[in-house]
Amino acid sequence: KRQFIFRNRRLTIGLTMDELEWRNQVRQDGFDDISKIKWAPGLFNDMHTHDFKANLFVVSGEMTVKTDEEEITCGAGETGALDAGVPHSELVGSAGVCFLIARKAG
């Protein structure tokens, strides 16, 4: 499993954790707003930014996240983090995607 982290338009890949470890870690890191999101197959969100830091855990399916410089496809059991203000787009795979997202002020 991989972990992807977009910071200042860069992507870093490392090790991942299970959902319970992820929930514990994001709470320790100050993320207090956790939501579950389901997106339909083929959904595309054009290039955009957020005014919050995001950390996610893919429950099922897959999606591709792309910045100006890099892209990665993340599947079930993989985690990711995105700093506030990083331009990116998302493309959902053919089976759709379900993920948990934790947010905190950027």
Plain-language structure description:
The relative contact order is 0.34. This protein starts with a strand and ends with a strand. The protein contains 1 helix and 8 strands; from the N terminus they run ββαββββββ. Strands 1, 2, 3, 4, 5, 6, 7 and 8 form an 8-stranded mixed beta sheet that branches. The protein is mostly beta strands. A hairpin with a 2-residue loop joins strand 1 and strand 2 (10-14).
Task: List the main descriptive attributes of the protein structure presented here.
106 residues; mainly beta; 8 strands
SSE sequence, one letter per element? EEHEEEEEE
How many individual β-strands?
8
Radius of gyration: 12 Å
Tell me the structural class.
Answer: mainly beta
Low-confidence stretches: 9-14
Number of helices: 1
State the helicity in percent bands: under 10%
Quaternary structure of the protein: single chain
Mean pLDDT: 85
Which of globular, elongated, flat, extended, rod-shaped describes the shape? globular
Give a quick account of the main beta sheet: strands, pairing sense, barrel closure. Answer: 8 strands, mixed
How big a fraction of the residues is strand?
A: over 45%
